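User: Could you write out the 3D structure of this protein bound to NAP? I've included everything you need below.
Assistant: Certainly. Input first, then the structure.
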Amino acid sequence: MAKWKVFVTRIIPEAGLRLVLENCDAEVWQEETPPPREILIEKIRDCEGVLTLLSDRIDGEVMDSAPKLRVISNYAVGYDNIDVAEATKRGIMVTNTPGVLTETTADLAFALILATARRIVEADKYTRKGLWKTWGPMLFLGRDVHGATLGIIGLGRIGQAVARRAKGFNMRILYYGLRRNEEAERELGAEFRNLHSLLREADIVTIHTPLTEETYHMIGEKELSLMKPTAILVNTARGAVVDQKALYKALKEKRIFGAGLDVYEKEPIDKDDPLIELDNVVLLPHIGSASVETRTRMAIMAAENLIAGLRGEIPQNLVNPEVLER
Ligand code: NAP
């Protein structure tokens, strides 16, 4: 039987790639950076499946260039890079990789909380530069994480995993979401707040919503102005949930204590982005799920989703089940 023609937009861990190569007639993009749009369009012209990364923008125009396309398997839990409504209209299944990256991403969010609160990166640079003269009573004073009030925006899989870590630090946990989650309230001792109350009360605010029309710039100038001058903002969700210009101003004017970012409105962040000049922000290159074990699990899951969809089965992680009703 002829194998399904697919395009894989980057080299993913071997275990997943092998599955794709065994089951499909696959071309794998070999470069370190994503295929430029025109090349992506060219590459998927005859494809039935495509395995994408969050750096590949898959909109209606791209889909129109691939009339045989049946499955878009995204190697990420977030799928804001894909126009799902347009895919559904065309009968294309969209899949993602939920769950397998939850704990790893929560680890990174907690690492950012600690690094920002205790000024780890700043202190590391200072030590390496040979600037350390003596033990100092006022040297690199940060903020306590243990016992602090944590405000979680989006108490989903990753938000709850962060809350479980916070319990070990004896933190008080507040959360904001579209609806109350009474089970999580019982299990985690989390208290529901509206967004503004959460921002006013929390010492550390951590964002775990998807990027949608509703969450775009959910944290802007007004919201930042509600935060305590001693507070910390951590974003490991998607950059555009925060108005980055407003955040820069708040950090520059020291209206909040600091921020820890894994994600940005534009990725990669520009070399001359003003955030880079600030000491009170920790900047990571979108590595939330980046552990060997988790990236391997994501690769296998993305491959299995792709193959299931191509076989005419319902993929385990189908984002648009309404496509089946067509
Ligand atoms: P999830 O389980 O779906 O959790 C998302 C949470 O956000 C849910 O509780 C959801 O509430 C809530 N939410 C949705 N829209 C909201 C709104 N308008 N206002 C307030 N809350 C809202 O997803 P997850 O697996 O935890 O992942 C969350 C996000 O993290 C992903 O979408 C992805 O963008 C990001 N992520 C980043 C990295 C990284 O490398 N930095 C890694 C993994 C994930 P309902 O359940 O009520 O809808």
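Residues 292-310 form the longest helix (19 residues).
User: Perfect, thank you.
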